[in-house]
């Protein structure tokens, strides 16, 4: 029995019941694929359900405000995916009359859609014989065929794409592509793969040579940069007991573009309260503090792909009104990074 036949047999017996498997609507398949990039199925599923409930069609998504999209995305990270999602929806409406492109080449024209996503949509929705290559597929192919070419090298990307095309089942491409990805997700997992119960165990090179834990090979990641964030939370309470604070929108092409956060003082190291009571004026120029308190004595370490953010939250109480005040009860309406959302939930004002 061929490699692809074994994958198909395994998939038909073991596939999970997932909401996007109940449809071949390209809008929903595209939505699921974008959400599941760099996101586990368990985490991504509730987001998929919320997006399809709020935006039942691609036109609904295209016509939404960006802040609404970012708010719904909040907590998934990699917010450029959400912005690209919104931009691509507009392209479908404006350039394709609201109908999703029905082939690989046209799908590649959409913002945020690369080889993998275009292959997945075209094969699942339109039965186009395009091989998918994601992290799960890299792992399965590298182990089964004993390939030690780094999967994130130019050579590796080309090699594995060619290999994936060679072994795919063109006649059953919809199930085959979903099958090999599912196989990598729940059978040939990164750690503790189920080799003893694997239908490929009798011909897996990595298992035969004891290389399961060594494959696939990846080039070393870029160096992680440490940054030190001090969020200054101005707090003013009026005569009726209503509390106000301030949020700023992040601009530029750095992390969390267009999301909202408390005024930020970035430093070269972790600051002490004595330093903050002086330095806060660099950021909150129009505010005279009555008292400055630290919320968390130990910095919260928030890890991004290439940055570790050592973060402290400082409460800056004032007796005076200030510019751009926002009622505290309204701050949950703003799309914010999960780091800020966690603070809001913990502090409770």
TrEMBL record:
Every HhH-GPD domain range: 35-186
EC number(s) given by UniProt: 3.2.2.31
Name this protein carries in UniProt: Adenine DNA glycosylase
Cofactor note text: Binds 1 [4Fe-4S] cluster.
SMART domains linked: ENDO3c
Role summary: Adenine glycosylase active on G-A mispairs. MutY also corrects error-prone DNA synthesis past GO lesions which are due to the oxidatively damaged form of guanine: 7,8-dihydro-8-oxoguanine (8-oxo-dGTP).
SUPFAM superfamilies assigned to the protein according to its UniProt record, in alphabetical order: DNA-glycosylase, Nudix
GO molecular function, one term: 4 iron, 4 sulfur cluster binding
Species: Maribacter ulvicola
């Amino acid at each position: 029995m061929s490699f692809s036949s074994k994958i198909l047999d395994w998939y038909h017996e073991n596939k999970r019941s997932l909401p996007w498997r109940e449809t071949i609507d390209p809008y929903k398949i595209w939505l699921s694929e974008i959400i599941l990039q760099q996101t586990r199925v368990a985490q991504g599923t509730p987001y998929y359900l919320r997006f399809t409930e709020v935006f039942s069609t691609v036109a609904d998504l295209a016509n939404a405000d960006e802040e609404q999209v970012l708010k719904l995305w909040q907590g998934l990270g990699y917010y450029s995916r959400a912005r690209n999602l919104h931009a691509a929806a507009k392209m479908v409406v404006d350039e394709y009359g609201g109908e999703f492109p029905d082939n690989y080449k046209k799908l590649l024209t959409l913002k945020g859609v690369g080889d993998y996503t275009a292959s997945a949509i075209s094969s699942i929705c339109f039965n186009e014989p395009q091989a998918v290559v994601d992290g799960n597929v890299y792992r399965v192919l590298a182990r089964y065929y004993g390939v030690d070419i780094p999967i994130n090298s130019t050579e590796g990307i080309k090699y594995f794409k060619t290999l994936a095309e060679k072994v795919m089942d063109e006649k059953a491409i919809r199930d085959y592509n979903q099958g090999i990805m599912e196989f990598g997700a729940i059978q040939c997992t990164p750690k503790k793969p189920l080799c003893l119960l694997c239908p490929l165990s009798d011909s897996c090179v990595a298992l035969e040579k004891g290389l399961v834990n060594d494959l696939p090979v990846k080039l070393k990641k870029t160096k992680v940069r440490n940054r030190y964030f001090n969020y200054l939370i101005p707090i003013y309470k009026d005569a009726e007991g209503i509390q106000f604070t301030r949020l700023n929108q992040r601009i530029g092409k750095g992390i969390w573009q267009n999301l909202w956060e408390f005024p930020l003082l970035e430093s070269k190291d972790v600051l002490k309260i004595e330093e903050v009571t002086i330095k806060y004026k660099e950021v909150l120029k129009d505010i005279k503090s009555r008292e400055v308190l630290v919320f968390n004595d130990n910095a919260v370490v928030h890890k991004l792909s290439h940055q570790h953010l050592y973060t402290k939250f400082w409460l800056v109480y004032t007796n005076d009104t200030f510019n751009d005040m926002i009622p505290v009860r309204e701050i949950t309406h703003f799309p914010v990074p999960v780091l800020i959302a966690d603070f809001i939930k913990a502090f409770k004002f």
